[in-house]
Amino acid sequence: MTVSPGCCVGLGEWRDRALALTGDSPWLGHDPSPEIEAGGDSLRVWQDAGSRHQRPGGYVDLPRVRLAALLADVQRDLVGFLACLDVWGRNGGLGPRTADLVAAVDRSFAIAAPLDLPSPAGRGEEPDRRT
Fold first, then answer.
1. What value does the mean pLDDT of the chain take?
2. Range 17-25 average pLDDT
3. Which residues pair with 36 in a beta bridge?
């Protein structure tokens, strides 16, 4: 089973996925309406929350502790993208504007800011703070 984000959600909201660690479901778009349901030590990611009862197999289970690691991986990849963007700008002749471009992309996607993840739903577990 694969769960794809709905329309109207993008990479800019990547940090919002951490809301699932507190038991909330972040916005995952609509049409269909993906949703994260917290339960115990796992998160159930539904492809279409509206059809849960009609299609009970339309989900993926994710261990709660994996979400923090996955978000750290996303941040690492985005930091790598910023490094590539910097090289591209310098090699492409942007000169001092390269730093402005990298900073603007970083701000827009909140890439380099610390990844402070909440403890999973008050379970007392330490968040994964790898960056």
1. 86
2. 90
3. 45
Beta bridge partners of 7: 30
Rounded to an integer, what distance in angstroms lies between the CA atom of residue 84 and that of residue 18?
A: 26
- One-character DSSP codes across the chain: ------BT--GGGGGGGGGGGGTPPPP--BSS--EEEEETTEEEEES-GGGTTT-TT-EEEEEHHHHHHHHHHHHHHHHHHHHHHHHHHHHTT-TTHHHHHHHHHHHHHT-SS---PPPGGG--PPPP---
Q: Which two tokens stand for residue 100?
A: 């402005």
Average pLDDT over residues 17-45: 89
Residue-wise pLDDT for 37-96, tens only, equals 988 889 999 888 877 766 667 889 999 889 999 999 999 999 999 999 999 999 999 999
